[in-house]
């Protein structure tokens, strides 16, 4: 996050808070340092869009699942039906957001596609990415991740 202040004390407090948030034990159990760094960059990219920034703020109330995809990647196309089904199943408990990286112009800034990033309390807490094959296998992979997100205490 960009810290916008001319006051050095406020800057240091905000920077310290951001560092502490990145190092919360809840998050480090789920993500490696490299993944946390990668997801911080993705969070920054998403925050540049007003709509996505507003949705990130809503993760204080409900976890937000960002599904980053591209039309020209086959594994994204095979994951789409599972995402649609999960969106319907979890609609009262989670917020799903599909981001077409080609339309957003960020395809070269995302390390792998498809990529699912879960935010809770405005922080990335989990990710799942790479190749997805059959619809059933996609559901078997993603349901436990979503269920864990719902049962995990707030960071």
Question: Would you give an account of this structure?
Answer:
The chain is α+β, with helices and mostly antiparallel strands. The chain has 7 helices and 4 strands. It has helices at residues 8-22, 25-30, 33-47, 50-58, 74-89, 101-104, 135-151; strands at 64-69, 95-100, 115-120, 123-129. A 4-stranded mixed beta sheet has the order 2-1-3-4, sandwiched between helices. Helix 5 links the parallel strand 1 and strand 2 (95-100). Helix 5 (74-89) crosses helix 7 (135-151). The longest helix is centred in the last third of the chain and has 17 residues, at 135-151. The protein is globular and about 55 Å long.
Low-confidence runs of at least 5 consecutive residues: 23-29
Mean pLDDT, to the nearest integer, reads: 83
Report the C-alpha radius of gyration, rounded: 16 Å
**Largest sheet geometry:** 4 strands, mixed
Oligomer: single chain
For the terminal residues, how far apart are their CA atoms?
A: 18 Å
Overall 3D geometry?
A: globular
Which features would summarize this protein structure in a list?
four-stranded mixed β-sheet, 155 residues, globular
Topology readout:
Layout: H1 8-22, H2 25-30, H3 33-47, H4 50-58, E1 64-69, H5 74-89, E2 95-100, H6 101-104, E3 115-120, E4 123-129, H7 135-151
Parallel strand pairs: 1-2
Antiparallel strand pairs: 1-3, 3-4
Helix pairs in contact: 5-7
